[in-house]
Amino acid sequence: MTTSPGTAAAPGSGAAGPPPAPEGSGLPVVGSILDFRRDILRAMHRGWRDHGDLVRYRLGPVVVHGVSGPELAAEVLTDSAAFGKLGADNPLRLILGEGLLTSDDHESWMRNRRMMQPIYTKQAIARMYQSMAASTAAQVEHMARGHRSGDVVDIHGEMMRVTLDIVSRCMFSTDVEQTRDGIGPEAVEVAVNYAFDRLQNPFSLPARWPTRRNRRFRRVMAGIDSMTYGIIAERRAAASAGTVRGDGAPDLLDMLLDVRDADTGEGMSDREVRDEVITTFGAGHETTAITLTWAFYLLSRHREVLRRVQAEVDEVLGDAMPTPADLAAMPYALQVFEEALRLYPSAPIVPRLARQDTVLGGHTVPAGSRLLVNLYNIHRHERHWDDPERFDPDRFSTEGRRGRHRFAHMPFGAGPHLCIGKHFALMEAHLLLAALVRRYEFRHVPAHRVVNQASITLRPRHGMEMTVHTRSRAARAG
Ligand code: HEM
């Protein structure tokens, strides 16, 4: 896929009419469904290149607008009165219920967001450093035990493993082995693929019909629910009995059970806690794992950048695991992650529903139509990025950031729904990147085909095969 100049539809130009639509994409009945199912990013990239920052598509009966410029994205994401979350037919709700990510009820979303915000501040997240560091150390150990230098490893699988472990430890104070039967990698995969398929295809058979696929999905969800409600019940019982768990340090679940509405003093119901727990698992591990995978891929293709990160990490860490203070002393490692998020935003499309007829970029957007804010296109927009396809972490140095449009880089979204887990993800990724670069060099296996697969996330379709090379002390010294 090449980068497009993407001309913006000039705001206020002429009488408001519908945005341009790709010619010929409108197959009778299905519209662009087949193109979108084949490769949604490619289809939207083509639409953007040919028609500009606002493009109208039809997916069967559903009208969808592709939004590919930061200016228009700013309007969409900051105006939640005009553009809300998808409604009750959002297939993600089949998994996440009405947690923060999928709730379309503004009042209850705001109440829960206010209650949960303090759990996710930078300071609060810093208290989870020990859990993240324990997982990271276990991952480094696991790779040392499981692989000899030169072995081929699927780095994507490894990153999924460690980020799932981190979210399990931070949420439940248990490692992933203890939650595998409920929220294991296979369960997450089945559930996410199922929901994404329904998201793209309005002609999917009703979820309640007993098809093989529906039954499989329901089985997976039953496992996830039974595990989650079981743990919630145990915690509530322990709290009423005054039992102190483990070292007494609260985990995310303790905090969710403890939050109170400032006005009413009420906490969350079991159902609400369940929805937020599953949302955290769903939103909070694959996204980080994928970006780390792309970061290691990019590093293996850009040796000069790799040498710079290695030099930074070696100088700050020597032979030790990173402490929080060390992270602050390794800004370049974080810049690598941010640049990987630019080129491969792990949640590439942010959907919204037009709640009312609106004029956007000089065009009418009718109530009931959908908007897909396309971060992949925005992050490659030539009005905002010099040589957008080039991997260059210096774009995120203090100097490099200067003067950039606030919405030109928004892998965590923007506006009131900005990712609540942003600090969690950045701390975790920074720590993992530094700890792994210190011990290993990953080299992409040239014969391995790297293909984007945009589902809800932007995964490498065939994983990421890389050889693992243990870095010797001598190499690290210089
Ligand atoms: C690199 C990692 C991550 C990326 C790229 C990412 C991306 C995003 C994006 C783009 C949104 C906005 C969705 C929208 O506006 O509709 C979002 C929302 C959200 N994210 Fe993340 N996320 C990441 C990690 C996390 C983590 C670690 C957690 C939890 C610990 C998390 C929890 C959430 C939640 C709950 C929301 C919904 C917020 C709301 O609507 O109030 N995310 N994320």
UniProtKB/TrEMBL annotation:
Domain of life: Bacteria
Annotated spans, Disordered: 1-26
Pfam families: p450
Keywords, in A-Z order: Heme, Iron, Metal-binding, Monooxygenase, Oxidoreductase
CDD domains on file: CYP132-like (cd20620)
Residue spans of biased composition, Low complexity class: 1-13
Coiled coil ranges: none
Family: Belongs to the cytochrome P450 family.
Name assigned to this protein: Cytochrome P450
